[in-house]
Specification:
The structure holds two protein chains of two kinds. By secondary structure, chain A is of the alpha/beta class. Chain A is built from 13 helices and 18 strands. Chain A has a single domain, classed as Metal-dependent hydrolases (TIM Barrel). In chain A, strands 1, 2, 3, 4, 5, 16, 17 and 18 form an eight-stranded mixed β-sheet that branches. An eight-stranded parallel β-sheet of chain A has the order 6-7-8-9-10-13-14-15. A two-stranded parallel sheet of chain A has the order 11-12. By secondary structure, chain B is of the alpha/beta class. In chain B, the strands form two sheets. Chain B has a five-stranded parallel β-sheet. Chain B has a four-stranded parallel β-sheet with strand order 2-1-3-4. Chain B contains eleven helices and nine strands. At the A-B interface, α6 of A face α3 and α4 of B.
C-alpha cells in the first residue's frame, strides 16, 4: 500500500535525535520530508492533529522469534528483525525471501540469516545468497557457536559481505543444561544452573574473534556486569561491537523465579540483583545499543511444565515500549536516547533507512501517549501466547496511532 | 525399647487447624518451626502403633491415597504405601516412567486425571524441581511431595529429625529441638533434595549444619541457607554430633564429577577411622540406598548404637502416617480442622 496523499502531523512533541521539539512532521510517498518546529502542512496535505502527544519513530525490534502482527502493532513496532530459529530454520535463500515479504505492507520483517546450516554451529549457510534474498544480518540463533574455528570463519565471511553477526552469549559447556543462574535462588530451588560467567566467557571469545576478523558483532542480549564491562572495553578500543538487552533483564532478577513461575524462564536466565543494576548502568552510560522485545510467544504446552522442562522465552512485543519509557520516567535515559535504543540503533545495525524522524527516512511513525496508564494482563494480550513476565503489573505508555511508510495502520 | 515420653504439654501449639494450616506438604521451606515440631509430635503415636503386632487403625477408612511416582523408587514408595494402609486408607500406586516423550503434558494431564478420580491425597515423586507444586495447583486434594528433582524431599527431612529426636532422647540428651547440635551433611549436595530439605529442617530446629562436598557437587550460594561449607571431609567432621551421608549416583562418579568411586571413597568415604574425627559418640545417618564401600563403609553403616540407618526407615513410616493424618483431617471433618 502506497501513501497516496502527503500527510502532515501537527501539534506534536516530535522526538528527533537532537531532542524533543514541539512541531510537526510532513511526509509524502512513504518518506519523511521534514520534521521540527518550523514544519507546516502544504496545500492538499492530509492533516492529523497530534494534540500535543509524542510523535516518535516506529520501533525496530531486533531479534524476535515469531511474527505476531497484532502484538507488534499494539507495541508500536513497524519493523522486526526475525531470528532464524524458525521451523525450518532460515538457512536457505528461498525461506529468507519468503519471510522478507511476509509482513508487508504494514509490517516489515527483516530476516536474520542462519549463520550455520540448521543452526547447528558446524557448516556455514549460504550467507551471500540469503543476503540477496533479503537477509539484513546473520544470527547464530538461540545458541552460541561452540567451535571457535567455525565462529572465526563466519565472522570473516560476514565482514566481507558487510553483514553484522548477531550472537547469543552463553558458553555452551557451562550453560548446556542450565535453567537458572547459579546462586542462592537456584540453589534453594534445586534448579540446574550455570555461573553468570558463562556469558562473559562467550563475549570475550566472540569479541576477540570479531577483532581478528574485522567483523561487526552484535551481542543480542548482555545481562551481566562482567559482560557489560567487556563490551564497554571493546567499544573504548574502537571495535565494531554493539549489544542489546530486553526489559526482563533490566526489570527482573532471579528472585522472580522463586515460585518456579515458568514465564520467568528466559534465555539467558534471569540474573542476580547486582547484574540487574549493572544493566541499568550500562543502558545509562551508552554501553547498551538496543532494547528489544525478544518476542517469543509460548503456549501452555511449552510453559505449563516444571521450570527446567519449560521452554525459555517471553511474549514481549506489547510491553517493550512501556517498559522502556519507564527508564525515561526513572531518569535512567532521556526520550531521544530511548528511541535510539528502540529504533535508530537497530535500524542502523540492519542497514534499513528508518528508525528516526529525519528527512529522507521511511515514514514509520508512532503517536504515543507516554503517560497513559494501563495494567499488563496476560488474559487480554494481542500476542499469540500470554507468556509475559510482567503480568498484573501496572505501567504507562500507549501507542495511539501508527503509520508504516506514511500509511496509517488500523490498531 | 521404651519410648521416652516426648508428648508435648497442652497448649504448645495453636488449636485445631492453626497448628498446621497447610493443605499440601510441598517442602520444608514452606513450614514454620512450630509446624515442623507439630508433625514430629504427631508421629510419636504412630511409632508406638508400628511397634505393636496389630499395626492398624481405621482413621483414614474410606479415603483413597494415590502414590504417583514419576521416578523410580523402592523404599519411599513402600514407606508411603505402608503408612497409608496402616491408617486404613485405600492406597493405589501409579508408576509413570519419566522417559515418556511428552512428559510435561503428561504431568498436568495425570494430575487432572487423578483429581477426577477423587483422590483424597496424592503423593508425588518427580524428577523435576517444582513439579509437585505445579500439580498441587491443579488438584483439589492435599499433595505430598515425595521428592521433586533437586528441590525438596520433606518427609525424608522430617523422618531424619524424628529419628534424631528419638536417638537423643534415649541418650538422655533429648530436648524440644536441636539447638547446639552439630550436623555434617556430606555427599552430592548439588543434586540432593534430601540435603536441601534437611538443611531447612535442621536449621529451623536450631542445629548448626555443615555441608561437605567436592567443589563440583557443591551448589553456589548455599551459605545463604545458613550452613557452613567444607570441601575436606576430615575438617568438617571435627566435633560433629551427627554425620549424614548422601548417596552418590554411580553415573556421577565415573569422570563427570568425580574421577572414580575409589577416589571418592578416598576423600569422602565414611570409614571407621574417619568417624573417629567426630565426637566419640557421633551418630551416623544415611537416607539409603547405600553404596557400601563407597560413601560409607559397612563397619560404620552397621555400627550398633550409633548407626541410625535402619531406625530412619522405621521412622519414615511413622512420619508419613502423621503427614497423611494431619493433611486429611479437613476432609475427614475432624473438629477444629474442617
Amino acid at each position: 500500500m502506497k501513501q497516496m496523499q502527503p500527510l502532515t502531523i501537527t501539534n506534536a512533541k516530535v522526538v528527533t535525535p537532537a531532542g524533543v521539539t514541539h512541531g510537526a512532521l510532513r511526509c509524502a510517498q512513504g518518506v519523511i520530508l521534514a520534521a521540527g518546529p518550523d514544519v507546516g502542512p502544504a496545500e492538499g496535505d492530509a492533516i492529523h492533529d497530534a494534540q500535543g502527544r509524542l510523535l516518535a519513530p516506529g520501533l525496530v525490534d531486533l531479534g524476535v522469534f515469531a511474527i505476531d502482527k497484532p502484538a507488534f502493532h499494539f507495541g508500536g513496532i513497524t519493523r522486526a528483525g526475525l531470528m532464524p530459529d524458525q521451523s525450518p530454520p532460515l538457512d536457505l535463500p528461498s525461506r529468507v525471501g519468503f519471510i522478507a515479504k511476509s509482513g508487508k505492507p504494514d509490517l516489515w520483517v527483516h530476516p536474520l540469516a542462519a549463520a550455520t546450516r540448521g543452526l547447528e554451529g558446524r557448516e556455514l549457510a549460504e550467507l551471500a545468497l540469503m543476503q540477496d534474498a533479503g537477509a539484513k544480518a546473520v544470527a547464530t540463533g538461540r545458541r552460541w557457536i561452540g567451535d571457535s574455528g567455525v565462529m572465526l570463519r563466519l565472522l570473516q565471511y560476514a565482514a566481507m559481505l558487510g553483514l553484522v553477526v548477531v550472537t547469543h552469549a552463553e558458553d555452551a559447556g557451562l550453560a548446556s543444561e542450565a535453567a537458572a543462574t547459579a546462586g542462592e535462588i537456584a540453589t534453594r530451588l534445586g534448579l540446574p544452573a550455570a555461573p553468570a560467567e558463562a556469558e562473559a566467557l562467550a563475549i570475550a571469545r566472540d569479541i576477540a574473534l570479531a577483532e581478528l576478523a574485522g567483523a561487526r558483532l552484535h551481542i543480542r542480549q548482555v545481562t551481566t556486569a562482567r559482560g557489560f564491562d567487556l563490551v564497554r572495553a571493546a567499544k573504548a578500543r574502537g571495535l565494531a561491537v554493539t549489544c542489546g538487552i530486553t526489559p526482563a533483564h533490566f526489570l527482573l532478577s532471579d528472585l522472580a523465579t522463586a515460585d518456579f513461575r515458568t514465564f520467568m524462564r528466559l534465555s539467558p536466565p534471569l540474573r542476580c540483583e547486582a547484574d540487574r543494576q549493572a544493566a541499568l548502568a550500562a543502558i545509562a552510560d551508552g554501553t547498551v545499543d538496543v532494547i528489544a522485545s525478544g518476542h517469543d510467544p509460548r503456549g501452555p504446552e511449552d510453559k505449563r511444565l516444571p521450570f527446567a522442562d519449560a521452554l525459555p522465552g517471553m511474549a514481549g512485543a506489547e510491553t517493550l515500549l512501556a517498559m522502556t519509557l519507564g527508564l525515561v520516567r526513572d531518569d535512567v535515559i532521556d526520550l531521544p536516547r530511548a528511541f535510539a535504543l528502540l529504533a535508530a540503533n537497530p535500524a542502523r545495525l540492519l542497514g534499513v533507512p528508518a528508525g528516526a524522524l529525519e528527512a529522507g527516512l521511511e515514514a514509520d511513525l508512532a503517536l504515543i501517549d507516554p503517560h497513559a496508564p494501563w495494567i499488563i494482563d496476560r488474559r487480554k494480550m494481542e500476542a499469540t501466547a500470554d507468556n509475559t513476565p510482567f503480568d498484573r503489573q501496572g505501567t504507562q505508555g500507549r501507542v495511539l496511532g501508527l503509520w508504516k511508510g506514511g500509511v496509517r495502520i488500523a490498531l | 525399647m521404651a519410648i521416652t515420653d516426648l508428648t508435648a504439654p497442652a497448649g504448645r501449639f495453636p488449636p485445631g487447624r492453626l497448628a498446621f494450616p497447610h493443605r499440601d506438604l510441598t517442602g520444608i521451606g514452606k513450614l514454620a518451626r512450630h509446624e515442623i515440631l507439630y508433625l514430629l509430635d504427631q508421629a510419636h503415636q504412630w511409632v508406638a502403633l508400628n511397634r505393636q503386632s496389630a499395626k492398624h487403625t481405621d482413621l483414614l477408612g474410606g479415603l483413597t491415597i494415590i502414590n504417583a511416582f514419576f521416578e523410580n523408587s523402592t523404599r519411599t514408595l513402600l514407606s508411603f504405601e505402608i503408612a497409608g494402609k496402616r491408617l486404613g486408607a485405600d492406597v493405589v500406586n501409579m508408576h509413570a516412567a519419566t522417559s515418556s516423550v511428552k512428559k510435561g503434558e503428561t504431568l498436568i494431564d495425570t494430575a487432572i486425571t487423578l483429581n477426577a478420580m477423587r483422590a483424597d491425597a496424592i503423593v508425588i515423586r518427580h524428577g523435576s524441581s517444582g513439579a509437585t507444586g505445579l500439580i498441587a495447583d491443579k488438584v483439589d486434594c492435599p499433595v505430598l511431595n515425595a521428592g521433586d528433582g533437586s528441590h525438596e524431599h520433606p518427609t525424608q527431612a522430617l523422618l531424619d529429625a524424628l529419628t534424631l529426636r528419638h536417638a537423643l532422647a534415649e541418650r538422655g540428651e533429648g530436648a524440644e529441638d536441636f539447638t547446639g547440635l552439630n550436623v555434617v551433611i556430606c555427599g552430592d549436595i548439588l543434586h540432593s533434595r534430601v540435603a536441601r530439605s534437611n538443611i531447612l529442617c535442621l536449621t529451623a530446629l536450631g542445629a548448626r549444619v555443615r555441608v561437605c562436598a567436592p567443589p563440583a557437587l557443591m551448589p553456589s550460594g548455599i551459605e545463604a541457607m545458613g550452613v557452613e561449607v567444607f570441601h575436606r571431609f576430615d575438617d568438617a567432621l571435627e566435633g560433629a554430633d551427627v554425620v549424614m551421608m548422601l548417596r552418590l549416583q554411580s553415573e556421577r562418579m565415573s569422570g563427570q564429577f568425580i574421577p572414580s568411586p575409589r577416589e571418592y571413597r578416598h576423600l569422602y568415604g565414611l570409614t571407621t577411622k574417619r568417624l573417629a574425627l567426630a565426637r566419640p559418640d557421633a551418630l551416623v545417618m544415611h537416607p539409603g540406598p547405600m553404596n557400601r564401600g563407597v560413601e560409607i563403609d559397612s563397619e560404620v553403616a552397621d555400627l550398633g548404637g550409633r548407626s541410625l540407618i535402619t531406625r530412619q526407615v522405621e521412622m519414615g513410616v511413622a512420619i508419613r502416617m502423621a503427614c497423611l493424618d494431619v493433611l486429611t483431617r479437613k476432609a475427614r471433618g475432624q473438629e477444629g480442622w474442617a
